[in-house]
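Propose amino acids for all 244 sites.
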């Protein structure tokens, strides 16, 4: 009865590689084949691919003064027929989550100031027109170009003009003082927040984190007395709001 000898595959591979290596070492240099070719029969180890987290890369990009923050533009709103919602429908939906609705104001490039004047009147601060508000806000900004936005305890201190992404402050003031020409921005909102001691909530037509709060840094120690709500068709138009 013949017997069958069982061999261990790994042992055979090791013996074969050892033998080939020995033969390669005995060859004269000019006749040696490339060693990596001789040893190519060695199975390469399988290295698993790294798992990359599903995250969104953040970039450090200086922006001009805006009224929306950390907007996720990948979010889309659609109706029951899968058609994208228009900006007005989205804004109405966002305002409704705060139990508010649109109160429209003139679209004459002063809409931010019209909307704020209406909001101030709703909380009992009367007598302010869009013209007076712009004038007061610009005067404050002109006097506070180098006002620190932080206490400087961590890193380099940031000034107001730098925080707003404005390089030519003088030109910015000259443009912002123009009635019916220049739109209000986040800097003018900050000025009004300080001057009237109010927090300003801007609710945008953009998806994502659409409710943006404007208020001075804590270390300025401004005692905020009230809160107002503005609606914002992104990069187009401000509106006032009222409770539903």
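Proposal:
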């Amino acid at each position: 009865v013949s017997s069958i000898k069982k061999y261990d595959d790994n042992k055979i591979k090791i013996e074969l590689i050892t033998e080939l290596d020995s033969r390669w070492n005995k060859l004269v240099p000019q006749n040696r084949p490339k060693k990596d070719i001789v040893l190519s029969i060695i199975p390469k180890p399988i290295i698993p691919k790294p798992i990359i987290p599903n995250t969104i890369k953040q970039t450090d990009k200086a922006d001009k003064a805006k009224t929306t923050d950390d907007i996720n533009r990948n979010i889309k709103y659609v109706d029951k027929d899968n058609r994208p919602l228009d900006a007005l429908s989205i804004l109405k939906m966002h305002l409704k989550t705060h139990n508010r609705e649109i109160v429209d104001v003139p679209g004459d490039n002063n809409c931010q100031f019209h909307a704020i004047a209406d909001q101030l009147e709703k909380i009992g601060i009367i007598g302010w027109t869009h013209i007076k508000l712009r004038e007061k806000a610009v005067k404050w900004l002109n006097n506070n170009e180098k006002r620190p936005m932080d206490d400087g305890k961590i890193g380099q201190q940031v000034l107001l003009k730098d925080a707003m992404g404005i390089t030519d402050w003088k030109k910015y003031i000259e443009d912002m003082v123009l009635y019916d020409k220049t739109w209000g921005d986040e800097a003018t909102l900050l000025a009004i927040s300080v001057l009237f001691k109010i927090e300003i909530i801007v609710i945008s037509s953009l998806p994502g984190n659409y409710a943006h709060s404007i208020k001075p840094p804590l270390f300025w120690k401004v005692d905020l007395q009230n809160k107002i709500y503005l609606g914002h068709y992104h990069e187009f138009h401000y509106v006032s709001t009222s409770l539903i």
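Helices lie at 9-26, 35-38, 87-96, 111-122, 130-143, 160-163, 169-176, 186-196. Confidence is low (pLDDT under 50) at residues 1-7, 29-73.
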